[in-house]
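Dear support,

I submitted the protein below through the web form. The confirmation email said the job was done, but the results page showed an empty box. After a refresh the structure appeared. I'm attaching both so you can tell me whether what I see now is the final result or a partial one.
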Amino acid sequence: DKNKGNFIKSKLVNFKDKIKIIFKASLPKKQAAFLSGITIGSREDFSKEFKEKMSLSGTTHLVALSGYNISIIAWSVGLLLASFFSTAVSFYLSILVIILFVMMAGAEASIVRAAIMGIILLLSVQTERLFNPRNAIIVSAFIMILFNPRVLLFDIGFQLSFAALLGIVYLSPVFKKILRIQSPGFLSWKENMVITASAQIMALPI
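What the results page shows now:
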């Protein structure tokens, strides 16, 4: 039946569709589909050929929403709200916007994990506590498994997301020490190389 579902989700889906319409009106079909993928996690307009090429080239992760998207949203929303509201109000509204974005994007494992960690980061700033990424990883995984234990064994997105993140947190410092990397390099190529390699090595077995 129509108009008998969740009111909030319905409005979010409509908003998501409007964004896609704007992209389609401004860009060629393939580029609009790709932009929808990297911004709002929408892959419905991807052709079979495009999906296969992304899979073969190892670039599917570009359209998997994660911490990068959450960080942009948290930073942008926080900056905007700080001009109108107090720090406390901005904090709660930022969390609300992150939750709504996750719902709109479809709540895949990678974006849920990033959202939980992002909220923990915002909470640490709000309470003037140090942010520990290792603790944040454990807490976010615990919450997700508590909500749905099946993700641990049957959700490959959950497994890849946490494997790549663990690689970045634990392997990249080791590689930097072994390779004696003291600076990020021109355009941060050294740091990006180490982070990418660390994530790929941990995700490779999966």
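Response: this is the final, complete result; the empty box was a page-load delay. The CA atoms of residues 83 and 142 lie 35 Å apart.
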